[in-house]
């Protein structure tokens, strides 16, 4: 990974745009960010970290306040970083979330965070604009997470000193983030989960066996025991109990059967005596009952049955007569309301119908009279509407000429705009293309500058290679010498001391390769020059097309002409429509005038007809409102007369039917043998009462017959004799209870034996199946304890700690080489995998071996300068190991933040030599410090002044 360019605006303490060119800073491999405390040195590193990962290292990342407090509110906060990773050059532009003033109204609104990634070289893919996608792309290319980046590339203030002095737990957290040992943590968890599942299964099986054993004890009514012979003894005792219960059951069953036979015989004798006594009592009650009156009442009720329905029919006929009387009364009242006072109903009705028939023709004329009157009203209203429409047409025809002239003018303007559209479009296209052409020109100029830099560097390399080859030409000529043949330079056949090859020498192949690189850079430079020239020509063409007109004016004129030209068809349609409307309104006015004349003529003629017919109808209506009303009155009067005559005839007919039915009922009562109708009705009974009387007689007859039959059947039984059932029943119950109890004991004993036998078989099988589970769980339990740092694990190291210890050992070896050199052979790191104090986990102990005393000592005992040397050595060693472990991009850039102030001059020389070795390997090393001696060693070339405080950040190149 190599950084090229950093641009930041309104970020941290920098309110205005600032630019750091890492290509210029890294040309010599070493540069210094120098300034007073608070000058913003670390902010530049924060900007690099924020551009890549959207966050900053250390405690500053917890604040999440990245915007400059002194920046203009309208200026957005942004960081742009251009870098190359794995041969791909790209630019990341990122803005944090910040508050900006609202465009409308007062107050502030939150501007959301944004991020974009643009490919510049080495990749043809599209850019990325989603924050999550950019984060994944950066992490994939770098091959490390942000925690690893902050520990490997950006070495922040005090972080490694804290790591050096931390305990095992804190050191383990950092190493886990750097080396990604989560998979080993998953292995530990997998074993623990596996043990929990196996333990739960084993416990369930154990619980099942225990439950079976308790069920055996419960079924056998004994206490459970873990003794092996307990189960066999339980089964033997239950078998003996079954045999004893079988013997007792057979004995008690015989005694119970004899007692039951005696009880049955006694019950038969007692039942016969009871039946004889009950039969005698029943016969006495039957003979004492008044059965003769029951038979007489039933006979009279049956003879009176025909009289009752005939008598009920009289009431129905009487009700019909009353209805007829009410109908006659209503008909008479209706006729009186019509003013009738005669007595010849049907003759007067015929006369009224004849008179109404004579008025039929005049009624038709009355209907026509009403229709003509309505027509007169309609003609009057229609004439009024036609007059209003005529006035509206005249008003519309007066304004149409002016609208036609206005529409004609708009149509001419649209036609003129259409004619000018093509020439205006040429200038508008040039105006639109001008910003893009300007951006293209700037881009091609940038590419040209980069191509010139690359070509110049390639040219310098070629010259350096040629210079080195010329200096080492003697070596190259010596390689071509052959024993006994003359030298190509001096001609001597003897070669006493030919030049020997040296490390790092160049030959013709190196020169040819450098020449090819220089030619490729030259071709790229020529291509960039042609592209820049083409961009300048495009801008020139745009300005020539615009002439003296401003781009904004050209765009505005073209857009206005387009909008006006679009209305041409609409204006044409409006003009044609107005002409057609003028013609249509003229024709409609002529038709409306004709309709008005026709309506007025029809109204005048209809008035004369209505007046002449009205005179005839007035004479014929008499005292009524009109002829139709008089005719309707006559028809209603005739109908009322006929209805009253019909109602009187119906009343007389109903009275005759009532009298006839009364005579028929009296005849039926006499035929049934009753003196009158009242006697017959008194003897009658309802169907339910008659049925009850029949049932009472039938029950009396059945009781008498039953009693007589029982006395005849049991004639030999003496009702005075007695049988004592209580004694016999008690003896039988006692014998049967004893037999039942013996049977119950036998059933229970057999059931207990069967149940216990079944459970015993299952219990033995469960005990046998538990044996392999117990062995498997014991093996898994011991292995899980070892993997998780317990049990037989003497070092108390988990699998993850073991892996981290191996990685830390590699870090200690890599860091010791640098620490030994920077401390002038005094210190080196010592890694220990022994367990910690009081049985705590070990494997991550890291001490310092002091060569002066020959003993290891804790890192906490080092002085400030010694701690810095140890921390820097540990950071550099960790960077090498992490880069190799992750397989990520080559780390060409490294930043070291602070700590130099604790070193004396000699130690600082050693540290600088070590950093020189880093840049000799191709790395660019950036130092962040306020130490004055470092600024003297690395001269200042660039200064950045911070707002408000006035402090200056100096960038020195060494």
From TrEMBL:
Segments crossing the lipid bilayer: none
Pfam entry (one): AAA_23
Source organism superkingdom: Bacteria
SUPFAM superfamilies, sorted: P-loop containing nucleoside triphosphate hydrolases
Annotated coiled-coil segments of the chain: 349-379, 404-434, 739-766
Alphabetical UniProt keywords: Coiled coil
Alphabetical list of InterPro entries matching this protein: P-loop_NTPase (IPR027417), Rad50/SbcC_AAA (IPR038729)
Residue span, Rad50/SbcC-type AAA domain: 5-181
Subunit: Heterodimer of SbcC and SbcD.
PANTHER family reported for this sequence: ABC TRANSPORTER ABCH.3
Family according to the record: Belongs to the SMC family. SbcC subfamily.
Protein name in UniProt: Nuclease SbcCD subunit C
The organism of origin for this protein: Lentzea flava
